[in-house]
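Retry 2 of 3 after timeout on previous attempt. Resubmitting structure tokens to design endpoint.
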């Protein structure tokens, strides 16, 4: 009994090979074995395939239908978009032409007003008026001076990714600093890319654009100034010149200062001045009482002790 039971227990135990033993025993994947068996049976190689059920087929048909509808809709709307785009381009061109005509007409009227005014005024008064217009920026001026040129750095590549990166750009603060230092060293008239600066001029940015008196200017930027002969030497030692030279050395921004003879700076547009006016009659609070004019006392709030 004992020998039989021992044999039964030994026969019931099965040997389980480890992974390496099984790998060496059956090196091929069962799928390859099945493919080899099918190839031997049919005489041609078996191709792995995939089956599509009814749901998958319906999804494929639906996607194809949606793509076809989207394509037809896009092609149908393309003529309308092209027509709208061409219409906007034509309107912009028309407005630019109208603006150019109006600007030329404004220059003609301004010149005619100046002629009529000089004819009506005496010689000394007309000369004084021209001097005042030149000093305030409302008259065209000519003379010797300097030109400060600033330009954005050329485009470069990122050292790590190699992608194109935006170049260091001239900021509106740079133009402000240059203009202020030119005024401080004796400039009598300044213009930025042909835009004359006056006492009410502004230099600011809107997005990536720089505006001078709300008119956009693009690089390279030329700040032209008319002034005394020592202006160039004094500007070279100013804070803005020293800062911009250091910035140009570190970032690649272009900064150059040169003497210029016989500069002509245009007149600035007529300013639109605003004045503060007092109210017609000061309003009193409902709780205030005014004493009679002969009492010699000041108004006092009602209910005061």
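Retry 2 succeeded. Sequence:
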């Amino acid at each position: 009994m004992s020998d039989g039971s021992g044999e039964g227990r030994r026969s019931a135990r099965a040997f389980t090979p480890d992974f390496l033993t099984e790998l060496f025993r059956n090196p091929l994947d069962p799928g390859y074995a099945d493919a080899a068996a099918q190839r031997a049976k049919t005489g041609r190689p078996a191709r792995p395939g995939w089956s599509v059920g009814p749901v998958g087929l319906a999804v494929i048909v639906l996607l194809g239908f949606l793509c076809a509808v989207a394509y037809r809709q896009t092609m149908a709307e393309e003529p309308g978009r092209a027509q709208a785009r061409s219409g906007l381009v034509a309107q912009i061109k028309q407005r630019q032409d109208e603006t150019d005509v109006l600007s030329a007409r404004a220059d003609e009227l301004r010149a005619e007003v100046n002629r009529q005014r000089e004819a009506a005024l005496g010689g000394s008064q007309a000369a004084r008026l021209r001097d005042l217009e030149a000093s305030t920026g409302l008259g065209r001026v000519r003379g010797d001076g300097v030109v400060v040129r600033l330009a954005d750095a050329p485009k470069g590549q990122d050292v790590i990714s190699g992608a194109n990166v935006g170049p260091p750009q001239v900021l509106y603060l740079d133009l402000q600093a240059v203009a202020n230092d030119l005024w401080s060293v004796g400039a009598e008239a300044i213009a930025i890319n042909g835009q004359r600066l006056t006492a009410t001029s502004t230099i600011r940015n809107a997005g990536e654009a720089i505006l001078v008196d709300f008119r956009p200017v693009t690089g390279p930027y030329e700040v032209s100034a008319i002034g005394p002969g020592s202006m160039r030497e004094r500007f070279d030692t100013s804070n803005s010149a020293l800062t911009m030279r250091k910035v140009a050395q570190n970032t690649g921004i272009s900064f150059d200062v040169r003497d210029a003879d016989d500069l002509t700076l245009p007149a600035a547009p007529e300013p639109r001045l605003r004045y503060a006016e007092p109210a017609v009659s000061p309003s009193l609070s409902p709780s205030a009482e005014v004493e009679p004019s002969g009492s010699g006392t000041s108004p006092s709030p009602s209910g005061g002790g």
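Attempt log closed. The longest strand covers residues 254-265.
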